[in-house]
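Note on ligand handling. Small-molecule inputs were canonicalized before submission; formal charges were left as drawn, and no protonation-state enumeration was performed. Where a ligand contained multiple stereocentres, the stereochemistry in the source SMILES was retained. For pyridoxal-5'-phosphate, this procedure yielded the string shown in the input block below.
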Amino acid sequence: MCKLMWVNNEQYQLQKNVEQAGSFLSHFTLDQVHRVTKFHHTYEKFNITPLRSLKAFASLVGVENVIVKDESFRFDLNAFKVLGGVYAIGRYVADQLGRDIDELSFEQLKSEEVKEQLGDLIFISTTDGNHGRGVAWAARELGFQARIYMPAGSAEERLQNIENEGAYAEITTMNYDDTVRYTSQLAKENGWIIVQDTMWEGYEEIPLWIMQGYTTLVKEIVEQLDEAPTHVFLQAGVGSFAGAVVAFLQQYYEQEITFVLVEPYVANCYYESFKAGTEQFVTVGGEMQTIMAGLACGEPNPLAWELLKTYTKVSICCDEEVAATGMRILGHPLATDQRIIAGESGAAPVGCFYELMTNRQYTELKDTLQLDENSRVLFINTEGDTDVENYRNIVWHGKYATI
Ligand SMILES: Cc1ncc(COP(=O)(O)O)c(C=O)c1O
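Structure output:
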């Protein structure tokens, strides 16, 4: 069985698409990103996450540098997702108060005065684990309640982590996309506020705030880097994360950057959409069981689709072994490279990159991407060991081995 499948997206880099995507870029300008970061920094325990340069690994595979932003350190929550949830809840509360988020701090939002004005708000969301944990954390920190629903097959440990944040949490019998529809219905029936990391017609504002929330990590990256990356590999579930990163970097740097999307085989809605070559995306359904739980989504976020179809060069989907290889590479560094604890969704792009750089079967892909000794390749480890048992099975016991 082949480990990667890929499709070149060049057919989408049309003038018409660039104009359309261009209109969305205004949500991700440096000014806009400053506003988001300013709010995040009002949280007293806010810390910048590290950026690692894996020079020995880069030299092994034949590029100039491999750079990894390590989001496993974000807010002690082991994943980047909270950046979106807390910003969206903050914006929502500020709006309800008729105030501008720019004038408000985390402390002010959790004050008694705010509670008196707004009463008990209940936030609801669907999650594979990380987003819901972020929403639960943000709701608790700000003194509100959260109800979090997870797709069938979700890890008990991830459910437990959400409950530990004081939220009601439940694993449903549905896949991710159907669970999203279910929570949306529950929100309507009960007057709860849905904080979902994907968009649909009539539900655009909160998902956009979530995407904007992610940009704090990208602003940190450009401040931590001396030189622009030549390539950025981004993992995609619904694509909100990748869309936000691409939208900001595309505007920030003047030179061209090659963006590559990475998904699991079983949830490859971007890959299938690019393959179809149509204006509209296609969706994939079914159970979507994969160790890359954060990426197990079959329906793209429509805003992210507009951005990603225009600005990504290649879309890759990979099997479980590739993600597992990425986890082992980052967990067992070479020479003086630093160790990175990366979970399944966090490590998949590194696994893909290693495979395409070292397996002759993918020479055409490597050439298409022009990956060579002048390439500075950026990755974002979006999660740490959010499923510790699976992490150990893979990294210690060799589960999903490639030989
Ligand atoms: C660890 C991790 N990485 C990446 C993603 C992908 O984000 P998106 O669904 O916005 O594409 C997720 C989504 O939950 C995730 O949990």
